[in-house]
Design goal:
The chain has 387 residues and is α+β, with helices and mostly antiparallel strands. The chain has 2 domains: 142 residues; 148 residues, Histidine kinase-like ATPase, C-terminal domain (Heat Shock Protein 90), CATH 3.30.565. The protein is 55% helix and 19% strand. It contains 8 helices and 11 strands. The strands form 3 sheets. Strands 6-8-9-11-10 form a 5-stranded mixed beta sheet, covered by helices on one side. Strands 2-1-4-3 form a 4-stranded antiparallel beta sheet, with helices on both faces. Strands 5-7 form a two-stranded antiparallel sheet. A hairpin with a 3-residue loop joins strand 10 and strand 11. The longest helix has 68 residues. The radius of gyration is 39 Å and the shape is rod-shaped. The model has no long low-confidence stretch (mean pLDDT 82). It catalyses: ATP + protein L-histidine = ADP + protein N-phospho-L-histidine. Pfam families: HATPase_c (PF02518). Its EC number is 2.7.13.3.
Length: 387
């Protein structure tokens, strides 16, 4: 749980950092954009005054300064519209046409759009005739890019967070895999010697007490230990699944669990009449069903209840459901049940369901999840295997 909590904390820190960076970038960009808009507005007011001076110029007017002001605008798109709605001048407008007539038509359309958006400065040319011009202007390319910059930065930050979280999860998964493999191999190795000794003792007991009814049961338990050691030895390798009767595998599990479970717990099997064959590593997959069944028994807490093992098939997959009438799983814990270290038991390691998920999804290319769970009423796990 400590590792899981640490990963969750790191995720939260990364997301909060990304949000703070994005918000800070948006705020700073907003201030810069606002200042640049004010500057461009001031420049357009000066440019509009220059246009008024040009329109009202006579033979005594010095046009040098006026023309300098007009020609210095090389960045802000501007369109001049007279009082009759006709475009008299335009510059820095991105219009790509084959002839001037088409360019003028496009400029007129764009000018009226800016006029409707109130992006204009009206200059009165003659107070008596009420003649005027509208200097319509748009944001410069620099201002448009600056307005889009924080969103691009936000995308980069989010991408960074996603990559960082992915790298973190990959590192965690790789570390977990090493722990799984190392623990499993070492467990199989440690079990090997005492199991071999027990097998030898069982053979001696068979010779000395051939009529003893307890020795066959002891032999079964020793073989069971041998099977468990074999399962552990296969963790970390990729055992090749072979065509196997799913009905027989489930029957083995039910037979094993039924003899080792309280009589107050009833095991019910719901199998189709025909046999279902899927590619399985039988010993590992039995481990999965045993684990789900043991968890179901533990969920009942010694009370009477029912464990239902349901098997069905579709044209493309086999479906196994393990349901119990136990205490159920809280909604807030549903997303954590398959994480290593998560357990609600006082003496649990929290590895069973994580290992079951690994066996189903990595070794058998299937899916396992909690289909439904209700506190006080029970839980149903569902497994789907491709046929």
């Amino acid at each position: 749980m400590q590792w899981t909590d640490r990963i969750r904390q790191v995720k939260i820190i990364l997301v909060v950092a990304a949000i703070l960076i994005a918000v800070g970038s948006l705020v700073v960009s907003n201030f810069l954009t606002h200042d640049l808009e004010q500057q461009e507005r001031s420049r357009m007011e000066v440019w509009a005054e220059a246009m008024r001076s040009l329109n009202n110029a006579d033979e005594n007017t010095d046009l040098g300064l006026v023309l300098t002001v007009l020609n210095e605008n090389n960045t802000i798109p501007v369109i001049v519209i007279d009082s009759h709605g006709k475009v008299t001048d335009f510059r820095n407008v991105d219009i790509q046409t084959d002839n001037y007539a088409d360019s003028l038509a496009r400029a007129t359309q764009e000018g009226h759009r800016l006029l409707a958006a109130h992006r204009n400065i009206r200059i009165t040319l003659d107070e008596h005739t009420h003649d005027y011009i509208d200097v319509c202007y748009d944001d410069s390319l620099v201002l448009k890019r600056l307005a889009l910059y924080p969103y691009a930065q936000l995308g980069v930050v989010l991408l960074f967070v996603v990559v960082a979280i992915f790298a973190l999860l990959t590192s965690k998964r790789a570390e977990q895999n090493k722990v799984w493999v190392g623990l499993s191999k070492e467990t199989a190795h440690q079990l090997g010697t005492p199991i071999s000794s027990l097998m030898a003792w069982v053979e001696i007991l068979k010779e000395q007490y051939p009529a003893d009814d307890l020795i066959p049961e002891l032999d079964k338990d020793v073989k069971r230990l041998q099977l468990i050691a074999d399962r552990f030895s296969k963790i970390g390798s990729l055992p090749e699944p072979v065509p196997t009767s799913l009905n027989e595998v489930m029957d083995h599990v039910i037979d094993y669990m039924d003899r080792r479970t309280s009589k107050r717990v009833k095991m019910v099997k719901q199998f189709p009449d025909h046999d279902i064959t899927v590619n399985l590593n039988a010993s590992l997959f039995e481990w999965v069903i045993e684990n789900l069944s043991k968890n179901a028994v533990d969920a009942m807490g010694g009370e009477a209840g029912t464990i239902t093992l349901h098997v069905e098939e579709t044209p493309t997959k086999a479906i196994i459901e393990v349901s119990d009438t136990g205490k159920g799983i809280r909604k807030k814990d549903l997303s954590n049940v398959f994480k290593p270290g998560f357990t609600t038991k006082k003496r649990g390691w929290g590895l069973g369901l994580s290992l079951a998920k690994r066996i189903v999804e990595e070794y058998h290319k299937g899916r396992i999840w909690v289909k439904s769970s209700e506190v006080g009423h029970g839980t149903t796990f569902r497994i789907e295997l491709k046929k």
